[in-house]
Amino acid sequence: MHRIFQHDPGMFARAFRALHVPLEDPLEVALLPTDLTEVRPLERRVDTLLRITTAAGRFLLLVEAQGEDDPDKPSAWAYYLAHAHAKYRLPALLLIVCHDRVTALWAARPAAIGQPFWPSLTMRPLVLGPHNVPAVTDPDTAAADIPLAALSAITHAKDPRIGAILKTLATVLQEIDEKDAHIVAELTELGLGNSPAAQTWRHLMSIDLSFFRSETSQRLRAEGVIDSILRILDRRGIVVGEDVRDRVTSCTDRRVLEGWLDRSLTITTAAELFVDESAP
Questions:
Q1: What is the mean pLDDT of each run of 10 residues along the chain (280 residues)?
Q2: How far is it, in rounded angstroms, from Cα 235 to Cα 67?
Q3: Distance (Å, whole) CA 199 – CA 217
Q4: What is the distance between the alpha carbons of residues 88 and 68, in angstroms, rounded to a whole number?
Q5: What distance in Å separates the CA atoms of residue 77 and residue 65, rounded to the nearest whole number?
Q6: Cα separation of 216 and 194, whole Å?
Q7: CB proximity list for 98: less than 8 A, separation 6 or greater
Q8: How many helices and strands, by DSSP H and E, does the chain display?
Q9: Among 51, 52, 55, 94, which Cα is nearest to 75's?
Q10: What is the bridge-based pairing of β-strands 48-54 and 28-31?
Q11: What's the pTM value of the predicted model, to 2 decimals?
């Protein structure tokens, strides 16, 4: 659940501005080591640690994924905050990301360390979960902020509407760059963990992201290589006859086209594109 903030840390500020928490958009984000171990026998690792720079200054964002109530966690979270602050000398915020409302409300409770009459340290995390992250089922809303739509899917993993949320996200991923789509898809699957929603998501990806392996996608890629071949020959002043042009534009074999593309950089006549095709 925490990795989505590494992909788009600005989503943190956007999500909480809707809750009237005055967080500014980051101008710079650095991924810091997550090892907060102080004493060798006691190893403690926060899930994600980011140093964020805004117009107002720098601060640390510690992100933890929490799947269920754990009475030992508040003291660990307090340790993370105190140690990170001591190590980096920067203000530190703790963000907890949850799958269900009960865990989110539990995690949001302030945890006091000390005596009831004098708490020496009060730990107050920010929490994102199904209670305050909108369920994004509208494609236009999802397309406007895809990482936030992915966060919606992650935090609503146990919501009855999760099918519609995942379908919406899968649909808009078809409209963006293939590499970005696969990154968001993988982060979403990791965020869903072992929930039944994860299986639903894997099924959707096997269908919806098949666009990137479909005949349409292959044709679009082939057309890009064809355009490159003809453009290179034109820029090099090589005359391309109709027979050569027809043969190039009618080819759908990407491997063959890529061979012609390589050859277009060195040949002296257009007919030389096809000279070595019979070679093993």
A1: 76 78 81 71 77 91 89 90 92 91 92 85 91 92 92 91 92 84 86 86 73 54 81 90 90 84 88 68
A2: 59
A3: 25
A4: 30
A5: 11
A6: 33
A7: 1, 65, 66, 67, 104, 107, 127, 128, 129, 130, 155
A8: 12, 7
A9: 94
A10: antiparallel
A11: 0.62
Report yes or no: 141 and 115 within 8 Å, Cβ to Cβ: no
24: burial class by Cβ within 10 Å (0-12, 13-18, 19+)? middle
The token pair that represents 63 in the structure block: 């992100």
Residue 255 CA to chain centroid, in angstroms?
31
Tokens 């020959």: give the residue: 233
In the chain the beta strands, taken as DSSP E runs, fall at 28-31, 48-54, 57-66, 92-98, 111-115, 118-123, 126-128
Residue among 78, 89, 95, 72 at smallest CA distance from 2: 95
Task: Find the distance separating the first CA and the last CA of the chain, reported in whole Å.
Answer: 50
Q: Which residues of 91-125 are buried (b: 16+ CB within 10 A; e: fewer)?
A: ebbbbbbbbbbebbebbbeebbeeeeeeeeeebeb
Tokens representing 249? 């534009």
